[in-house]
Design brief:
Strand order of the largest sheet: 6-5-9-8-7-10-11
Largest sheet: 7 strands, mixed
Helix content: 25-40%
Structural class: alpha+beta
CATH class of the domain at 124-274 and 330-394: Alpha Beta
Shape: globular
Oligomer: single chain
Number of strands: 27
Strand content: 5-15%
CATH architecture of the domain at 124-274 and 330-394: 2-Layer Sandwich
Length: 1112
C-alpha cells in the first residue's frame, strides 16, 4: 500500500505547559504533525502503530496551492491552527497488514460459528416433517422425525433454530405458545398459562393494573421461553426483535450466560431489498410521509414526479415496474410471496384468535393454532434460505453481520423508580389536564355573555359561531352557566336556552346522570371553537377559520377597496334576494353581511376590536397609515370575509397546505416567541402553557406504560435497599436494519427525547438505571455524519484531511470564533446557529433549495417567498455551489466505490459531458456523494455495503437522488456503528472487561459495565473511536488521521442514561430533579487525558492495582 508520509509537515511550535500531570502520555511537541492543510494529525508514535511508518506519495506543490486557494476563497487560509497536546500510548497489537485486515479478522472470529450455523440452515433441503399431532403439555417438546420420538426437553438442544412465538394480545405480555425447527427436529412450547386451566387472570400483567392505580404484577424469566445457555446459538426469526423479548436467557445481565445470537430475516430483507420502500412509494400504506431533514423516506413529490415522467416513454414505465418488482411489503406473507410467487400464500386467518380472542379459544383450537405458528416457522426458514446468500453477496465485509448481531442485544435495566416515574408523570398530567379543562370551561361560559343584546355580532372571533337557540320561555339574557366561578358543579338543567355551539360542548342529560361532568366539559384544545374562545391572534391579528382554506387571520383592507367590495356585495345580495324572495335572518346567518363588513371596517380603521368582558382590549395595530401597505408573506384570499383579507397560517409542510389547528404541536414555537398569543386573559396563556407541558406525555405515554418490564430481582436481595430492592429489565424491540439506510428502528427508546424543563415525562431516559455494582459507560460520536460527508469530500478533492472548506471547518472550526460550519451558515443567511444545523444536515442528506426556502419561511413567517428563495439560493451557491458541465476526462473518485457518472450506452469518452458542482464549500463533497449514488451498484465506501435493489440505478435511473445521497451518508454512519461494536467486543473479551452492550441511539453508544472496570471500558471506547476513524481514513486512501477527531471529546460514566452527566433532569413530573427526587448523583465525563491517567494508559487489569486510590 502506498503511503503519504510527506503529508505530515513538521511545524515548529512553542512548547506549552500542561495543566495536568500526563507528561508520559501527552505533550506539546516542537515537531507536531501538521498536514498540507495545516491540520494537526496523530502523533508519530500513535500514527505508526495504526498506519505503519512507510513513506508514501508526496503531496505536490500544485495540490498544496490548490488547497490554499480553495480555503482562501472561503476566508479560512489565514486562520490560526489550534495546537492540541499530542497523545502517546501503546495500543493493543493489530492483526494483519493493515487496519482493514484487522477488522476483518475480528469480525470473522466473532461470527465464525454463527456463519456455520446459518449455512447449516441454508443447506437444509427441506424442513423435517411436521408432527401430525402437537403435544399439549407445559414446556418444550421435541419431535425427532427420524426416531419418531416425542420427548420432553428443558430447551431445544440444537444450536441453529428458526423460531416464532404467539401471545394473547388481550391477556398481557406472557407468551402463549412457540415453535422452532432445526435441520434435525421440530420443537413446540406451551405456556403454563395455556395448559393450566385454573390460572386466574389477576396473575397476568395487564393494563388493568395501571387503570386501578397500582403496579401490575411483572413477569419473571421463569414465565418466559427458555432456549438454553450452554452453547452459542443462532436464533432466526422474521421479526425476532419482538420475539427476543419473550426469551428467558436474554434477561441475564451476565454476557457469558446469554449466548443466543439473534438474526432477523426481516432485517436481512430490508438490507437486501428494502421491502419498506414499496410501502413508502405506493398509496397502499400511510408510511409515505413528506421529506424531512432527518428522514430517508422517499417523498410523495418524488413518487409523483417519477410517475409523471414515467408516462413520457415506455422505457420509463418499464423502469417503474423494475423497482416495484424488486420490492415487497415487510410482512412475512408479503416477503414469502415475493420470493415464492408460485406457491400458495400463507393462511393468516388464525391470527385473529391471538389478537382478539381469549385463552379458552386457544385451548379449544390448540392443534390448529400450533400448526399456524409452525407454518410461519417453515415460511421463515424458506425466506432465510433465499436471503442469506444475497446478504453475504451484497454485504461482503464480515463487520456488517457482526455489528448487526451485537446491535440486536439491547438491554435496559430499571428499578422501582420506573414505576415512580410513571405514576408521577400520570399524576402531573391528570392534574394539568383538569386545570386546563376548568379554564377552557370558564372561557366558554364567559363567551355566553356576548349573547346579551346579541353583542357577539360585533366580536371578530365569535360572530360566526352558531348562536341559534331552541324556542324557550326564558330569554337568552336569563341563561346562567352550569358551573359557578369557583368551579363547583351546579344542578344541571336542561339546555334549551343555550346557543348551539355551547350545547355541542356539553354532555347530554343522560350522560350527566351516568357521571359525566356537567357544563361544557367536552371542550378541549383540539376543538375548532377553542381558538375563538381564547381570542387567539397571529402577529396581533385575529385568527379565523375558513372551511375552504383552514385557519388563517384577518387583516382590514384599504378604505377604497372596502367601499368597492361593499358596493359589489350589496348588488350581489340584492340579486339573490329577488331570486329567492327570502330574507336572511340571524338564525340563518348570525351576523348580517353588511353589519359584519362595517364592524370589521370600523374596528379595523381604529386598529382595535372590542368585547364586553372586563374592558376594551387592543387587538392589533396597523403599522402603516394605509392598510394597503400591509404585506403579509402567506397565502392571501379575499373571498372569506368582506372588508378584510384572509391570510392562511403558514403550514410546516409549505404552501398549499391547510392548518387544521393553530394550537397543535407545530405551533408551540410560535406560542413561545409571542407570534401566536391569546387575548382572553392570563388564563389563556396558562391554557397554552399547559398544552405545551403535556404534549410529550400525551404522545408517548401509551408506549412508555406499555414497556414490558421483567422482574430479575435476585432471590436473596435482602442487602438491596430503596429503589434497588426491585430489579427489572426492558428489552427494546429493535429492528436492527429497519430503514433504507440500515438504521435500527424502535418506537420508544431510539426516539426518546432528552429532558426538558417544560415537558412532562421527558426524563424518560434517566429512568434507565444501572444495577448496584454497575455503571453506564458511553459516548456520543462528535458530528458523526458531517465528518463522514466532509472526509469524503477531502478524499475526492486532494486526498488531504481538511483540504476542502467543509473539511477544514469540521476539523478546525470552532463556535467561539464562528468558524465552524453551523456558525458560518447562520451568519450567511441571518439565522440562529441551531436553525443552521437543520439546514446543514438537510442539505447533506440531499435536500434542495425548495426545502431550504420552505424551512426559512417556517422559521421566519415574515419572509416573503421571494426573500426566502433568495436566501436559499445564496446559501446553496455558497455551500453546494453551482453545477457545471465539463468535457473529456472524468473526475477522480474512490477506487472501488463507483464511477463518477451514469453513462449513456451511446456515448463515448471523447464527447462525454459530466456535470459537477463547483464554487461552493461543499462542492467536492457533493460530487463524491453523487458519484457514489449514481454508480452502477452504489456501495458504502468503507465496508462496501450495497444499496437496496429497489434503489439501484438499473431500476430507478436517475430518480430518487435525494434518497440515494442520503443513503451514502447515513448508511456509512451505520458502518461506523458496526465497526465500533465489533472493536468494543474484541477489547472487552481480550482484556476481560465485564461489560455488555446496552443501547445505541443514532450516534450514541452505551455499555453496562461492572463498576470496577468502568475506567478500562472508557479507555476501550476511546481506542475504539480511534481505530474506527482510522478505518474510514484507510479505506478512503488516507494514511493519517486528524488528532481532533481521533478521540471522543468525553466518555460518560454514569448510573443512568442522560444527555450530560451533570443534568439534573428537572421537569414538571420531576420538580426536585434526579439528585433530590431519585438520589442520583452527577456522573463523570472524562477526556482522553483523564482516562489515560486513571488507567495508567493500559487496558490490562493488573496495571490498575498500581494506581493510587484517587485515580481509581
Amino acid at each position: 500500500m502506498q503511503r503519504r508520509a510527506s503529508l505530515f509537515a513538521w511545524a515548529s511550535t512553542r512548547p506549552l505547559r500542561l495543566s495536568c500531570p500526563l507528561a508520559q502520555h501527552t505533550s506539546y511537541s516542537a515537531q507536531t504533525h501538521l498536514n498540507a492543510a495545516n491540520i494537526q494529525m496523530l502523533s508519530k508514535p500513535l500514527h505508526d502503530q495504526i498506519f505503519n511508518s512507510a513513506s508514501g506519495v508526496k503531496t505536490s506543490a500544485e495540490t498544496v496551492k490548490r488547497i490554499q486557494e480553495h480555503l482562501k476563497a472561503f476566508g479560512l487560509s489565514d486562520k490560526d491552527t489550534a495546537i492540541l497536546p499530542d497523545i502517546n500510548f501503546s495500543l493493543p497489537e493489530l492483526s494483519g497488514a493493515n487496519i482493514d485486515e484487522h477488522f476483518r479478522t475480528l469480525a470473522l472470529n466473532q461470527t465464525e460459528k454463527i456463519r456455520d450455523q446459518a449455512e447449516s440452515i441454508v443447506r437444509m433441503k427441506k424442513v423435517p416433517p411436521r408432527p401430525k399431532k402437537w403435544v399439549y403439555r407445559e414446556g418444550w417438546t421435541k419431535y425427532d422425525a427420524k426416531k419418531r420420538l416425542q420427548s420432553r426437553v428443558a430447551h431445544p438442544d440444537d444450536d441453529a433454530l428458526i423460531f416464532d412465538i404467539e401471545l394473547m394480545v388481550t391477556e398481557g405480555n406472557c407468551p402463549t405458545m412457540a415453535t422452532a425447527v432445526s435441520p434435525h427436529a421440530w420443537y413446540s412450547w406451551c405456556s403454563p398459562r395455556l395448559v393450566d386451566e385454573q390460572f386466574h387472570e389477576q396473575q397476568m400483567r395487564s393494563s388493568e393494573g395501571w387503570q386501578k392505580g397500582h403496579e401490575p404484577e411483572n413477569l419473571r424469566p421463569s414465565d418466559l421461553i427458555p432456549l438454553g445457555s450452554n452453547s452459542e446459538k443462532l436464533i432466526v426469526g422474521h421479526n425476532v426483535g419482538f420475539d427476543r423479548a419473550f426469551v428467558a436467557e436474554q434477561y441475564d445481565i451476565n454476557v457469558s450466560l446469554s449466548r443466543e445470537r439473534i438474526a432477523a430475516d426481516f432485517s436481512l430483507r430490508i438490507a437486501v431489498a428494502v421491502s419498506s420502500i414499496r410501502c413508502l412509494c405506493t398509496s397502499r400504506s400511510p408510511a409515505s410521509r413528506p421529506y424531512s431533514a432527518f428522514s430517508i423516506s422517499l417523498t410523495k413529490a418524488e413518487v409523483a414526479g417519477r410517475r409523471s415522467s414515467s408516462m413520457k416513454n415506455s422505457s420509463a414505465i418499464s423502469n417503474v415496474k423494475d423497482w416495484i418488482d424488486d420490492t415487497s411489503l415487510n410482512s412475512l406473507n408479503a416477503v414469502y410471496r415475493f420470493y415464492f410467487p408460485h406457491r400458495d400464500p400463507l393462511d393468516k386467518s388464525s391470527r385473529d384468535t391471538f389478537v382478539k380472542g381469549r385463552m379458552q379459544e386457544v385451548r379449544e383450537n390448540f392443534q390448529e393454532l400450533m400448526g399456524y405458528c409452525a407454518s410461519d416457522v417453515a415460511a421463515t426458514t424458506d425466506v432465510f434460505k433465499a436471503l442469506w446468500p444475497q446478504f453475504l453477496e451484497r454485504f461482503p465485509h464480515p463487520v456488517t453481520l457482526a455489528g448487526m448481531l451485537e446491535m440486536g442485544s439491547t438491554f435496559l435495566p430499571v428499578n422501582a423508580d420506573w414505576f415512580k416515574y410513571i405514576n408521577s408523570a400520570e399524576t402531573k398530567y391528570a392534574e394539568l389536564q383538569k386545570e386546563q379543562q376548568k379554564m377552557l370551561m370558564t372561557a366558554a361560559e364567559d363567551a355566553l355573555n356576548f349573547a346579551v343584546d346579541q353583542n357577539y355580532r360585533n366580536d371578530v372571533w365569535l360572530w360566526d359561531l352558531d348562536w341559534s337557540v331552541k324556542k324557550v320561555r326564558t330569554k337568552v339574557a336569563d341563561f346562567r352557566p352550569l358551573t359557578n366561578r369557583q368551579g363547583e358543579e351546579a344542578k344541571a338543567p336542561y339546555l334549551p336556552d343555550a346557543p348551539q355551539w355551547y350545547r355541542d360542548l356539553c354532555p347530554r342529560e343522560i350522560e350527566v346522570a351516568r357521571g359525566h361532568q356537567a357544563g361544557p366539559s367536552k371542550i378541549s384544545t383540539l376543538m375548532r371553537v377553542t381558538p375563538k374562545l381564547l381570542r387567539l391572534v397571529w402577529d396581533g391579528f385575529p385568527v379565523h377559520y375558513s372551511d375552504k382554506h383552514g385557519w388563517g387571520y384577518l387583516v382590514p383592507k384599504a378604505p377604497h377597496e372596502r367601499e368597492l367590495e361593499m358596493s359589489l356585495w350589496e348588488q350581489e345580495e340584492e340579486g339573490e334576494e329577488k331570486k329567492s324572495s327570502k330574507k336572511l335572518t340571524a338564525k340563518d346567518f348570525p351576523l348580517e353581511k353588511r353589519e359584519r363588513k362595517e364592524s370589521l371596517v370600523a374596528e379595523g380603521q381604529r386598529g382595535r376590536y372590542s368585547h364586553s368582558v372586563n374592558s376594551r382590549v387592543r387587538y392589533f395595530s396597523l403599522q402603516t397609515s394605509s392598510p394597503r401597505e400591509f404585506k403579509r408573506k402567506e397565502e392571501v384570499f379575499d373571498d372569506v370575509v368582506p372588508g378584510a383579507s384572509f391570510y392562511k397560517l403558514p403550514h410546516k409542510d409549505g404552501k398549499g397546505k391547510r392548518v387544521g389547528n393553530p394550537l397543535a404541536k407545530a405551533f408551540l414555537a410560535k406560542l413561545e416567541d409571542g407570534c401566536l398569543r391569546c387575548l382572553y386573559g392570563p388564563q389563556a396563556e396558562a391554557i397554552l402553557h399547559h398544552s405545551n407541558i403535556c404534549s410529550y406525555w400525551k404522545m408517548n405515554k401509551e408506549r412508555i406504560k406499555g414497556q414490558m418490564v421483567v422482574d430479575v430481582t435476585p432471590e436473596h436481595s435482602h442487602s438491596l435497599e430503596g429503589a434497588h430492592a426491585f430489579q427489572g429489565v426492558i428489552l427494546p424491540k429493535v429492528v436492527t436494519a429497519g430503514t433504507v439506510t440500515r438504521r435500527a428502528v424502535e418506537a420508544t427508546w431510539l426516539t426518546a427525547s432528552n429532558a426538558y424543563a417544560d415537558r412532562i415525562g421527558s426524563e424518560l431516559k434517566a429512568m434507565i438505571r444501572s444495577p448496584p455494582g454497575f455503571h453506564f459507560v458511553g459516548a456520543d460520536v462528535d458530528s458523526q455524519e458531517l465528518w463522514i460527508a466532509s472526509v469524503l469530500g477531502d478524499a475526492y478533492f486532494a486526498g488531504v484531511h481538511g483540504s476542502t472548506a467543509l473539511g477544514w471547518m469540521m476539523l478546525q472550526g470552532n463556535k467561539k470564533d464562528a468558524t465552524d460550519m453551523h456558525s458560518m451558515t447562520a451568519s450567511l443567511v441571518g439565522i440562529s446557529r441551531d436553525q443552521a444545523k437543520v439546514f446543514n444536515y438537510g442539505r447533506i442528506y440531499g435536500a434542495g433549495v425548495k426545502f431550504a426556502k420552505q424551512l426559512l419561511m417556517q422559521f421566519n413567517h415574515r419572509l416573503t417567498e421571494e426573500e426566502a428563495a433568495a436566501k436559499a439560493r445564496l446559501m446553496y451557491a455558497r455551500t453546494k455551489g453551482r453545477k457545471e458541465r465539463s468535457l473529456g476526462q472524468r473526475s477522480l473518485c474512490l477506487g472501488h466505490a463507483c464511477r463518477c457518472r451514469f453513462r449513456r450506452a451511446d456515448s463515448d469518452d471523447s464527447d462525454y459531458k459530466e456535470a459537477l458542482w463547483s464554487g461552493g464549500s461543499e462542492s467536492h463533497m457533493f460530487n463524491q456523494l453523487e458519484s457514489i449514488a449514481q454508480s452502477d451498484v452504489p456501495r458504502t465506501p468503507v465496508l462496501g455495503c450495497t444499496i437496496s435493489k429497489a434503489l439501484e440505478p438499473r431500476n430507478v435511473d436517475s430518480d430518487f437522488m435525494a434518497s440515494r445521497i442520503n443513503w451514502v451518508v447515513q448508511s456509512s454512519a451505520v458502518d461506523y456503528l458496526h465497526l465500533m461494536l465489533v472493536c468494543m467486543r474484541w477489547l472487552l473479551d481480550r482484556y476481560a472487561i465485564d461489560a455488555r452492550f446496552s443501547i445505541s441511539i443514532h450516534d450514541e453508544v452505551r455499555y453496562l459495565v461492572r463498576s470496577e472496570d468502568k475506567y478500562r471500558a472508557a479507555l476501550a471506547l476511546q481506542i475504539t473511536n480511534l481505530l474506527t476513524r482510522s478505518m474510514f481514513a484507510h479505506q478512503l486512501k488516507f494514511n493519517d488521521l486528524p488528532l481532533s477527531v481521533a478521540f471522543f471529546s468525553a466518555v460518560d460514566l454514569d448510573v443512568c442514561l442522560r444527555k450530560e452527566v451533570g443534568m439534573d433532569c428537572v421537569t414538571p413530573s420531576n420538580p426536585e430533579g434526579l439528585r433530590v427526587g431519585y438520589g442520583i448523583e452527577h456522573g463523570q465525563a472524562l477526556n482522553i487525558q483523564e482516562i489515560l491517567e486513571k488507567t495508567a494508559a493500559s487496558l490490562d487489569k493488573d496495571q490498575q492495582s498500581s494506581l493510587s486510590p484517587s485515580h481509581q
